[in-house]
């Protein structure tokens, strides 16, 4: 039978757990005096403030686990206590049992408090995670908008540069005596040359002999009031413009083209006072010429 002295020591050892009012987290083995047997006392742990909510929750989880373990130990000690029939020893053991019960109640209260705090912190973590996801989504949206704006800025800058380049070309050619009409600049020579040399003059200035596309452009070129080469030549049995397109309809003078002497393979505006003013002419003839440079 276990001696009354040993049971009292066990009870007092258990009571010592609750004297501090601190949470129970670690256990340490001790030796029962006089018997050589071991029992367990429970001592409070020292806690360190966590640097983040995750660390706090991890610490609380451990504290709760320790409290559960302590609670089991106390219950085990309570069940293991047996007393002899000596009235004074029974009274002492009853007193210690009552203290032990109060200790168990305190331990259970601490456990519930720790669980409540852990739940509260977990809820805070959930809210913070939700806010973080919202912030990340907003940042992603802002970055997408910024990328779109940068793309638009690049496009506008390119358009601006292209327009400025056209303006620069326009101003330079106008200063050299070129005339603007419907997206093209035109230059009418004051000297004469054969058709090939006339074209070479135009191409040396990033232009070519004029291509007349419609009646309005035909009237515009006639308005210069002189005889000049245009960019139309014979290609086999067809007439071709210098831009590679074939003539579909023209503004030929009456009886033209007639290929007189079988050598008239280039075209001039001859009778410029008439709407139908085109004439086929040998390319070796000296004429003025009109250059055209598209700027739009």
Description of the molecule:
The chain is of the alpha+beta class and 296 residues long. The protein has two domains: 4-131; 179-294, Mannose-Binding Protein A, Chain A, CATH 3.10.100. The protein has five helices and ten strands; from the N terminus they run αββααββαβαβββββ. The strands form two sheets. Strands 3, 4, 5, 6, 7, 8, 9 and 10 form an eight-stranded mixed beta sheet that branches. A two-stranded antiparallel sheet has the order 1-2. The termini are far apart. This is C-type lectin domain family 4 member M-like. Residues 1-21 form the signal peptide. Residues 139-166 form a coiled coil. InterPro entries: C-type_lectin-like, C-type_lectin-like/link_sf, C-type_lectin/snaclec_domain, CD209-like_CTLD, CTDL_fold. One of its GO terms (molecular function) is carbohydrate binding.
Q: Would you list the SSEs in sequence order as H and E?
A: HEEHHEEHEHEEEEE
Number of domains: 2
What is the helical fraction, as a range of percent?
A: 40-55%
Mean pLDDT: 81
Distance between the termini: 114 Å
Shape designation: rod-shaped
Oligomer designation: single chain
Largest sheet: 8 strands, mixed
Low-confidence stretches: 1-50
Number of strands: 10
Count of individual helical segments:
5
Give the strand content: 15-25%
Q: Please state the CA-atom Rg, rounded to the nearest Å.
A: 54 Å
Helix/strand/pairing category: alpha+beta
Protein name: C-type lectin domain family 4 member M-like
Keywords: Coiled coil, Lectin, Signal
Pfam families: Lectin_C
InterPro entries: C-type_lectin-like, C-type_lectin-like/link_sf, C-type_lectin/snaclec_domain, CD209-like_CTLD, CTDL_fold
